UniProtKB/TrEMBL annotation:
Phylogenetic placement of the source organism: Archaea, Nitrososphaerota, Nitrososphaeria, Nitrosopumilales, Nitrosopumilaceae
Organism: Nitrosopumilus zosterae
Protein name as catalogued: ABM domain-containing protein
Membrane-spanning residues: none
InterPro entries, per database record: ABM_dom, Dimeric_a/b-barrel
Domain (ABM): residue spans on this chain: 18-105
PROSITE patterns per the UniProt record, alphabetical: ABM
């Protein structure tokens, strides 16, 4: 079992890592506000057991993607179905021109 990193005094193994990627389309002029919301919402979501990271990326072509890493699918689902997540979600979606296109992954090799 390979140790990826130490986070919140827990060692995270790549063996069960769960990753969600979402392609995001933002409304014109919404990038700065979305970035602020994203950083603030990370302060809440980072407190969930199993949380590893959550990043907002911008490609050279101007497209956006969110990557969320959790220790397992179960910890991701618990966070995703939580009242805290439900409270944060509407504001994040208010900056988007369409719902995010999500895909989930499990790490199978390194």
């Amino acid at each position: 079992m390979k140790i990826l990193e130490k986070k919140f005094n827990a060692y995270i193994s790549s063996q069960n890592m769960f990753v969600m990627m979402a392609d995001v389309n933002l409304k014109d002029g919404a990038e700065e506000d979305f970035k602020k919301w994203f950083s603030e919402s990370n302060k809440v979501l980072a407190n969930f057991p199993g949380f590893v990271s959550r990043r907002f990326l911008k490609a050279n072509d101007g497209s956006y993607r969110i990557i969320v890493e959790h220790e397992s699918k179960d910890t991701f689902i618990k966070m995703h179905n939580s009242p805290e997540h439900d409270k944060l979600h509407p504001e994040g979606h208010s900056y988007m021109s369409a719902p995010p296109e999500r895909k989930t992954f499990s790490i199978i090799a390194e």
